[in-house]
Design goal:
The structure holds two protein chains of two kinds. Chain A is mainly alpha-helical. Chain A is built from four helices and no strands. By secondary structure, chain B is mostly helical. Classes of the chains: A mainly alpha, B mainly alpha. Chain B: This is NADH-quinone oxidoreductase subunit J.
Chain lengths: 109, 167
């Protein structure tokens, strides 16, 4: 393990930034283009994970454990969000027999 | 093989996350999402954030994925029931996403940090170090997050309970 992590010293920080930007954007595209509510939730999870990885990389870069503590809190928040969100989706499905988010457009007004 | 592992795993995570949003069947999306989270766990191990790697493995690949799969099976959505979105919206969404990634990468190029990532303190991501941080300066947010989880649990149970009065 020590060997592996000392070998990793060559990766520049901005490559982590690019990777996380790409994965965050994939999450945004998923939210914009899909209509299945559960797949939209998964795209939100992708975005949260991209931010988590970036926080960890910056925490290692500046030698500060606070970043990894933030990642821990984001994971707790994501677990709570998924539980409530899936409960809402089950509720919507029970009332409309569909999880197409366009069914919900009458919430607009 | 020094930095090759990072680029290999990064490519894998991009491919799997693309598969998540382009798979037709929601079950396949969930399975690709599990693979994406696994590659993220490998990233955490490579950054020597061992506590986060274990928590990511247990919470995301264990709890959250089981929740997604359970809801998909419960709603019987394992066939391709998704209504077709008009291709116009798909193209507009793709163009908007490409604009976003161009903007992000361009602005990060302006404020570039090319210094390589060096692990100064090998014990940074270990349980001992994070525990001292978590129960020292971050004690109040830690306790508040327990309140958040309790509220989420009560809310989820209340939401998914059938309404006895109306039924």
């Amino acid at each position: 393990m020590e060997n592996l992590t000392t070998q990793m010293a060559g990766v520049p920080l901005n490559h982590y930034i690019y990777l996380c930007a790409i994965i965050f954007t994939i999450g945004v595209i998923g939210v914009l283009t899909r209509r299945n509510a559960i797949v939209i939730f998964m795209s939100v999870e992708l975005m949260l994970n991209a931010v988590n990885l970036l926080l960890t990389a910056f925490s290692v870069h500046s030698n500060d454990p606070s970043g990894q503590v933030f990642v821990f809190f984001i994971m707790a928040l994501a677990a709570a969000e998924v539980a409530v969100g899936l409960a809402i989706i089950v509720m919507v499905y029970r009332n409309t027999k569909s999880i197409d988010i366009n069914v919900l457009n009458r919430l607009k007004w | 093989m020094s930095t090759q592992v990072f680029y290999f795993v990064a490519t894998l995570s991009i491919i799997f996350s693309l598969m998540v949003i382009f798979a037709k069947n929601p079950i396949h999306s969930v399975l690709y999402l599990i693979l994406t989270f696994f590659t993220f766990t490998v990233h955490y191990v490579l950054l020597n954030a061992q506590f986060l790697a274990v928590v990511n493995f247990i919470v995301y690949m264990g709890a959250i994925m089981v929740l997604f799969l359970f809801v998909l099976m419960l709603l019987n959505l394992n066939k391709e029931t998704e209504p077709v979105k008009s291709p116009l919206i798909k193209i507009v969404g793709l163009i908007a996403g490409c604009c976003l990634v161009v903007t992000l990468v361009g602005s990060f190029k302006a404020a570039t940090i090319t210094s390589p990532l060096i692990l100064k303190n090998p014990g940074l991501g270990l349980v001992e170090n994070l525990g001292k941080e978590l129960f020292g300066p971050f004690l109040l947010p830690f306790e508040l997050s327990s309140l958040l989880l309790l509220a989420a649990m009560v809310g989820a149970v209340l939401l998914s309970k059938r309404d006895e009065v109306e039924a």
